[in-house]
């Protein structure tokens, strides 16, 4: 089975239409098999697109559009594609809050390069689907870092996590990806 977009390019016995989804949780594991105990191959971050080929038993099988990795993501981590991102998280990690205040309840912890679609602003807070983000922790999607080595150095001391792509844990290719993404460059896993 292959995506219909590959018909005539990749041989397959059957081609199907895919369903483009967007990651709606701060992050989700992309696994080798449809099980929370399966090997994590990669992670998809908030706002990233995931092309679903098949879905069943609470899991979606498909391809992460940002880096091309294929695997299973828990279906509850995915939603309909909303408006295009306007910002990305520029710090290693930041909280989103339920109201425009650092004293409000956090709604999630978002990692560098999570994709945010700004819906409004109040003071120093930007409203998005995930909650209210501190403006200084975001960068416009078209404003890239100038030094990917300096970005990578921000992760010094981060524990190793196979398939990880976040500041709480990442692997070697995840580190390179995050540094390049922040610098406005594509990077396959």
Characterization of this structure:
The structure is a single chain. With 189 residues, this protein is mainly β. It folds into three domains: 2-80, Roll (SH3 type barrels); 87-140, SH3 type barrels, CATH 2.30.30; 148-182, no CATH class. It is 9% helix and 40% strand. It has a five-stranded antiparallel sheet with strand order 8-7-6-3-9, with no helix packed on it. Strands 12-11-16-15-14 form a five-stranded antiparallel sheet, with no helix packed on it. Strands 13-10-17 form a three-stranded antiparallel sheet, with no helix packed on it. A hairpin with a 2-residue loop joins strand 18 and strand 19 (169-170). The longest helix has 11 residues, at 172-182. The chain is globular and about 55 Å long. It starts with a strand and ends in a 7-residue tail after the last helix.
Which labels suit this protein?
189 residues, 5-stranded antiparallel β-sheet, 9% helix, 19 strands, 3 domains, mainly beta, 2 helices, SH3 type barrels
Helix content: under 10%
- Whole-number count of domains: 3
- The top-level CATH class of the largest domain is Mainly Beta
CATH superfamily of the largest domain: SH3 Domains
Proper CATH architecture of the largest domain:
Roll
CATH fold type of the largest domain: SH3 type barrels
Question: How would you classify the helix and strand content by structural class?
Answer: mainly beta
Mean model confidence by pLDDT: 95
List the helices and strands in order.
EEEEEEEEEEEEEEEEEHEEH
**Proportion of residues in β-strands:** 35-45%
